[in-house]
């Protein structure tokens, strides 16, 4: 479990660094982006984060690794403050404390599991997720937060399939190819839904997607992988409470990160 947590932390830092670099050139045209080394550095950082995430799935349970994905928002706080040459705001501190505390509580009660989805289970989960995402794609009036939830679902299921592939590399070439193809399809669809959700803003969709991802993974872990929480009924209560606190922390961080930089600087000027 320690290895998985360390890899998740490194992955979160890589993802946060990549997002920060890409955000700085977000207003550029595609042609300008391809010529900007900062954009390529951001893509490289995201790629490194993805690799670390995949490796973490080999050493830790699906529920744990997906929940630790919320650390990306936590890591983005000091990085954004350093780049913007400002202090961390009070809201960012509160959001970081809530998110970190909830994740620590989840670490305490989350049991370890080396199991992965079987080929049949993987096929069933993929078809179920594809059906939901296909239905959602045909809804012209799908709410932005609904799109964010579907995107988070896609990412969570894709990670479950990724874990199945990495833990069953000797299962045969055909199943591995099929698994990789399914992961790619789900990730591409999840990115599309996530981008669609940003039409209504950034903070709320980001929070919904960040929470929906580990929730989907937790359902798979408990229902199909036999994962349980330590401490019996008390552990389940702690886990549920942690999800509530984690959601509050993610929402707080997402809202603060979505605020204009000028507004935060104005507050700092008034405070000083």
UniProtKB/TrEMBL annotation:
Keyword Membrane: yes
Coiled-coil segments: none
Domain of life: Bacteria
Keywords: Membrane, Transmembrane, Transmembrane helix
NCBIfam families in the cross-refs: DMT_1
Keyword Oxidoreductase in record: no
Protein's recorded name: DMT family transporter
Lineage start: Bacteria, Bacillati, Actinomycetota, Actinomycetes, Micromonosporales
Residue spans crossing the bilayer: 55-81, 93-110, 122-138, 145-165, 171-193, 200-226, 232-254
């Amino acid at each position: 479990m320690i290895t998985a947590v360390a890899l998740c932390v490194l992955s979160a830092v890589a993802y946060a660094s990549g997002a920060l670099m890409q955000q700085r050139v977000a207003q550029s045209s595609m042609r300008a982006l391809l010529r900007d080394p900062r954009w390529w550095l951001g893509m490289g950082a995201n790629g490194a984060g993805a690799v670390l995430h995949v490796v973490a799935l080999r050493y830790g349970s699906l529920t744990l690794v997906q929940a630790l994905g919320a650390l990306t928002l936590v890591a983005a706080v000091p990085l954004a403050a350093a780049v913007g040459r400002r202090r961390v705001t009070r809201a960012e501190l509160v959001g970081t404390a809530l998110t970190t505390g909830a994740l620590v509580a989840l670490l305490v009660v989350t049991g370890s599991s080396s199991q992965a989805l079987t080929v049949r289970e993987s096929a069933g989960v993929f078809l179920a997720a594809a059906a939901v995402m296909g239905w959602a794609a045909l809804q012209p009036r799908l709410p932005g937060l609904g799109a964010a939830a579907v995107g988070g679902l896609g990412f969570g299921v894709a990670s479950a399939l990724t874990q199945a592939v990495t833990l069953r590399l000797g299962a045969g070439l055909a199943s591995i190819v099929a698994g990789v193809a399914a992961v790619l399809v789900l990730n591409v669809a999840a990115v599309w839904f996530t981008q669609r959700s940003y039409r209504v803003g950034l903070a709320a969709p980001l929070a919904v997607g960040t929470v929906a991802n580990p929730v989907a993974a937790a359902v798979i872990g408990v229902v199909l992988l036999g994962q349980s929480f330590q401490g019996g009924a008390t552990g389940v209560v702690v886990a549920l409470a942690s999800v509530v606190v984690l959601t509050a922390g993610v929402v707080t961080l997402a809202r603060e990160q979505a605020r204009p930089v000028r507004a935060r600087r104005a507050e700092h000027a008034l405070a000083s």
